[in-house]
Amino acid sequence: MARIGIIGSKGRMGQALASAIEAAGHEHSGGVDQGEQPGPLASRSDVLVDFSAPQALGANLAAARVPGIPLVIGTTGLGAEHHALIDEAAGAIPVLQTGNTSLGVTLLAYLVQEAASRLGPEWDIEIVEMHHRMKVDAPSGTALLLGEAAARGRGIELASHSESGRDGHTGARADGAIGFAALRGGTVAGDHSVIFAGSQERLRLSHQAEDRAIFATGAVHAADWLIGREPGRYSMQDVLAL
Ligand SMILES: NC(=O)C1=CN([C@@H]2O[C@H](COP(=O)(O)OP(=O)(O)OC[C@H]3O[C@@H](n4cnc5c(N)ncnc54)[C@H](OP(=O)(O)O)[C@@H]3O)[C@@H](O)[C@H]2O)C=CC1
Ligand SMILES: O=C(O)C1=N[C@H](C(=O)O)C[C@H](O)C1
């Protein structure tokens, strides 16, 4: 049984996570939200799980480093500066960062990388996502994770091939681009499709989250797996040995 602390505990994911911790037979060691310090929570936990906001990341990493416990980061909307902080902290503690903790999306990313490596560059790659009306970041962390998987399969950098927010007279699609489109509305837990558009045919690989409980279950699994690991940066593909 592990003591799991929740950062962002009163949010949609924080509440789903509390249920998943109990269902898995672990102990919920408490939670923090905006304006609260994560240090005391870290000192009474074996692992922290963060579903909060990017601006909380620095304090969360620092808090986990004091007792030397692992941190699972599910928060999305991270920028290059956040990834640099994670890389630095991963020299001292185990850190798992992912835009999606579900089993289905982790497998989807694997399949997307495989498809992108087998289909030639003439197959255009577009990623479409839809989420509930309260979501604040776009493209979603999952869409970016799938874009990274496609770019890896192609042997290219996502940063220099990404096209999003098309509007107006955009000109023709750039050769080799990986496109992103984000839809928002209702209560959608998370839909993602990666479309490979070739000449006269299309291949679509999709995942639909029916309930955010799948993210919570995956996060608990990841947290449990991370305890006792060597310091380093890990992914859900490591957890599932893909
Ligand atoms: N990786 C994955 O599988 C998934 C990732 N997510 C991501 O998780 C994050 C949270 O999503 P969701 O639960 O829907 O969002 P919510 O807005 O429902 O919850 C966010 C919670 O974080 C708290 N919070 C905000 N700022 C801080 C801070 N500085 N320190 C501590 N807590 C803070 C909020 O508190 P307050 O209300 O007081 O501001 C709130 O309780 C998002 O980035 C989302 O994209 C979501 C689902 C799955
Ligand atoms: O904010 C959400 O709800 C979700 N966020 C993650 C993302 O940005 O991909 C994961 C999931 O799709 C739900």
From TrEMBL:
The residues covered by the Dihydrodipicolinate reductase C-terminal domain are: 104-240
Residues recorded as binding NAD(+), renumbered to this chain, are G8, S9, K10, G11, R12, M13, G74, T75, T76, T98, G99, N100, T101
What pathway does the UniProt record associate with this protein? Amino-acid biosynthesis; L-lysine biosynthesis via DAP pathway; (S)-tetrahydrodipicolinate from L-aspartate: step 4/4
Q: Which GO terms describe its biological process?
A: diaminopimelate biosynthetic process; lysine biosynthetic process via diaminopimelate
Give the catalysed reaction(s), semicolon-separated: (S)-2,3,4,5-tetrahydrodipicolinate + NAD(+) + H2O = (2S,4S)-4-hydroxy-2,3,4,5-tetrahydrodipicolinate + NADH + H(+); (S)-2,3,4,5-tetrahydrodipicolinate + NADP(+) + H2O = (2S,4S)-4-hydroxy-2,3,4,5-tetrahydrodipicolinate + NADPH + H(+)
Q: Is-annotated flag, keyword NAD?
A: yes
What UniProt keywords are attached to this protein's entry? Amino-acid biosynthesis, Cytoplasm, Diaminopimelate biosynthesis, Lysine biosynthesis, NAD, NADP, Oxidoreductase
Q: Which residues bind (S)-2,3,4,5-tetrahydrodipicolinate?
A: H132, G141, T142
Domain Dihydrodipicolinate reductase N-terminal, chain residue ranges per copy: 3-100
Subcellular locations according to the entry: Cytoplasm
From the Swiss-Prot or TrEMBL record, give the protein name: 4-hydroxy-tetrahydrodipicolinate reductase
